[in-house]
């Protein structure tokens, strides 16, 4: 076991030196970028699953129009993830090595990005609820009529 | 002041570009989230403006030629 741990430490340290600080070990960020790209690609694709087709096929056009909050949330979130990816891409043109802190911060960023399809669904639901609620005067008018 | 490890991993132009880029990002997103909780359409508008702003490239964001 101890031999295995020593071998692992030598394998992780640059140049095979033992006892190197794990936080300062410099790694090529290629794997981090590849993993991040995969997460961005999966998340941006999952957004379309939040678009539910209308259930009433008797008036398809009206049903599709009524989905505008979902379209809006989809478009804004798609462009948001796109710009996060673009800035991530540009930022990693400058970063030549990834230590533990960069790995942790990148993981936190990906955690927030993966949460976005859920947030998109919530925002679309809120917008739909806000537009579907009738003002008080219209319900009074319908009762009196 | 960046640490020695950061100086090895990131050039000064990159640090400046990244710093400028993300100086206001979290505050902008937090504002959008708070406004969105009060009025969803307003929150969407703030996030849409964030998208437009952060799609625009800034000076120094592309690294210079290798020495």
Give an account of the 3D structure.
The complex is a heterodimer of chains A (145) and B (67). By secondary structure, chain A is mostly helical. Chain A is built from six helices and no strands. Chain A is elongated. The model of chain A is unreliable at 4-16 and 135-145 (pLDDT under 50). Chain B starts with a helix and ends in a 12-residue tail after the last helix.
Name its key features.
heterodimer; A: 145 residues; mainly alpha; 6 helices; 71% helix; elongated; B: 67 residues; 4 helices
Strand content of chain B: under 5%
Give the integer mean of the pLDDT values of chain B: 78
Radius of gyration of chain A: 25 Å
Assign an overall shape of chain B. elongated
Distance between the termini of chain B: 23 Å
Classification by helices and strands of chain A:
mainly alpha
Low-confidence stretches of chain B: none
Average of the residue pLDDT scores of chain A: 78
Greatest contact pair?
A: A-B, 26 and 26 residues
Rg from Cα of chain B:
16 Å
For the sheet with most strands of chain B, the description reads: none
Helical residue percent band of chain A: over 70%
């Amino acid at each position: 076991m101890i031999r295995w741990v020593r071998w692992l430490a030598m394998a992780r340290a640059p140049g095979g030196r033992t006892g190197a600080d794990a936080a300062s070990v410099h790694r090529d960020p290629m794997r981090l970028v590849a993993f991040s790209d995969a997460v961005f690609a999966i998340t941006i694709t999952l957004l379309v699953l939040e678009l539910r087709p209308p259930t009433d096929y008797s008036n398809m056009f009206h049903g599709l129009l009524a989905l505008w909050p979902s379209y809006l949330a989809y478009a804004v979130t798609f462009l948001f993830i796109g710009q996060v990816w673009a800035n991530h891409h540009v930022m990693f043109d400058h970063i030549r090595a990834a230590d533990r802190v960069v790995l942790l911060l990148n993981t936190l960023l990906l955690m927030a990005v993966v949460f976005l399809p859920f947030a998109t669904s919530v925002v679309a639901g809120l917008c739909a609820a806000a537009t579907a609620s009738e003002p008080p005067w219209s319900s009074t008018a319908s009762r009196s009529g | 002041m960046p640490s020695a490890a950061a100086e090895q991993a990131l050039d000064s132009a990159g640090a400046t570009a990244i710093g400028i880029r993300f100086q206001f990002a979290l505050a902008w997103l937090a504002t959008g989230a708070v406004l969105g909780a009060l009025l969803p359409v307003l929150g969407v508008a703030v996030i849409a403006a964030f998208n437009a702003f952060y799609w625009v490239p800034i000076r120094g964001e592309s690294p210079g030629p290798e020495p």
